[in-house]
Amino acid sequence: MAVKFEQTSDGEYKLDVCGYSCPHPQVYTKKALQKMASGDVLTLVFDNPSSGESIIAMCDNEGNDLYERSNDGGMSIWKIRKA
Amino acid sequence: MSNENEAVAVAAQREGWLAQKGNQYAVSIMALVLLGSLWVLSIDSRYIYLLVYVWFGMIYGMLLQYGRFCMAAAVRDLFAVGVPRMAVGMMIAVALYSIIAATVTVGGFSTFHPHPIGWHVALGGLIFGFGIVFTGGCASGSLYKAGEGNVGSMIVIVAISFSQAIFVAASGWFDRLVPAAWIDSAVAKDMPEELSVTEGWFDIFTAGYVWDMKGSTLAETLGTANPVVASYFVNTLLVTILPTIVILIALYAVYYRKGYLRRAKITAPDMGDHARGMWSMFTSSKNTAIAGVGLGIFAGLQMWVTGALREHYHIFNFGELLSDMGHTSGLSIQDTVFDPGYWYITTQEAQWGAWVMERMGVNMMDNIFFGLDNGIPNPLLNAPGFMSIGIILGAAVLALSRREFKWKLPSMETAMFALIGGTLMGIGARIGMGCNIGAFFATVTNGDPSGWVFLAGMVGGGYLGVKAFNLWIERRSAKQDECEL
Fold this sequence. Notes:
By secondary structure, chain A is an alpha+beta fold. Chain A has helices spanning 24-35, 49-62, and strands spanning 4-9, 12-16, 41-46, 65-72, 75-81. Chain A has one domain (4-81): 2-Layer Sandwich (Translation Initiation Factor IF3). Chain A has a five-stranded mixed sheet, with helices on one face. The termini of chain A are far apart. The relative contact order of chain B is 0.21.
C-alpha cells in the first residue's frame, strides 16, 4: 500500500491515498495541488472520511473548485480543479 | 445537499431504508445496546449509573462521527494545511459547555475537580500534541475512527492503554532521575506501605510534586463567594469565553480572512465585513459546528445526570456502589474507582491496559494511580470504560447508516505511527494529568485555567509534530519513485 500520484493525461492527475488516515490524505492533496498548474484537474481517491472535511475547507480557502464528490462504502472519489 | 449525501438519499429511497445492509447493522447495534441495558437493569437497577456512561458515550460517538470532530485536527490541520475548521468547532464546544457547566455547578451537581498548574501540564501537552500528529486522531478521535472500522485507530487505543499503564506503574533506573526533594516530600506523605510511593517515577512525581500544589478554579483563587458570580462571571466569562473569543479572532485573522475576502470579492473591508467573515468561518463546516453545539450540551448534561445519581444513591464515587453490589475486586484501597462523571478518555484506557497486565501476573496496584485512586476494575464493570466503548459503537452506528463504515487495515507505516504516536499520547496524558478532553476541554470549561496551559503545550507539540511529519514524508518520497510529491 503506497501513495500513488500520477499524471493520467494532459492537465489531469490522479492521487490515490487509500489506506492512509489523517493527516496523510490532506497533506498529500495539498502537495499534489502545489505540483499542478492552474486549471489542471486532480482526481483524488481516499478512504478516510474525516480527511474529506479538511480537504473541503482547504479547497474553499485556496479557491480551488471541488466540483465532484462521490462517496460509497467508505471510499471517496473527488475531483478538484486548481484555481 | 452534497453529491455524496444525495447519492445516499437516492439509494435509500430506491431500496428502502432498512433494505440497506449498513442500516441493518446500525439498527442491530442499537438494539443490542438497548437489550443489554435492559438486561443489566433487570439484574440490579443500580447499574443505571454505569449505563449513563454507555449512553452518553453513544451520543458522543455519533456527534464526533457526524462532525468529524477530532481535536488532533484542530491543532494539526492549522499547521499542516492551514485549515481552521476543527479549531473553530472545538472553540464553539468549549464556549457552550462552559455555560452549561456553570449552570450545573450553580445547581450543586458538578463533579469537576481542578488540576494543579505546573510545568508538567505544558510538558504533558507538548508530548501529547506531538503524538497526535502521527496517530491521525486525538484520544476521542481515535475512538470514533475505530467505530468507522479504522484498525490503525484501534492500534492507537491499545498503545494509549498499555503505555499509560506501564508508565504509571514502572520503576527502575529512571527513578534516580527525580529530584531528591520530591522523594523526601513523597515519604513525608506517610502513605500505606503497599503503594511503595518511593518506588516508581510516577508515584514520586505524584506524591512529591503534584500533591504539593493545589488546583483551583479562578473563582476559588480570587475568593469569589457568590456562586452565581463565581460560576458565570469569573469561571465562565473570564476563564473560558474571553480567551475563546480571542482565539477565534486570531484564527479568523490568520487562517480565514484572506480567503473569505477573496471569495466575497471585498477589497476594502470594514468591521461589518469582518463580522460576516467570522460568521462564515463558524458556519463553513456546518457538521463540525453542529457537533460542537451538541457535544457542549451533552457534556454538560452528563455531569448533571451523574451528579444527580450520586446524590440519589448518597455516594461520592461509583466504587461505593460497586462495593454495595458485592463487587469489591479491583477497587482502590480507598474503595474507589475512576469515575469522573464527565467526558474523559485516557484513564479508563490505562485501566484496561493494567487489567490485562494483571492477568499476566504483573502487580499493577502497588502505585498511587491505580492502587490509591483509580483501581483496576474488571472491564465489564468499568463505567467510564463503557463510555469509551459507547463512543466506538455510537460512531459505528452513524458511520454504517451514512455508508461511511469500512474496515481499513493500516499500512506498515500507519501501524508504526499508531504505535509510536499512541505511546507518546499515553505518556503525555499521564504527565499532563489527562488528554485533550480531561486536561483541556473539561478544565477550561469549569473555570480551571490549567487547561489553557495544556493547550499551549499541545499546540507547540502539534507544530513540532507537523514539522517532523513533513520531514518524514519528504524523506520517504525522495526514497520511493512511485510518488513524486
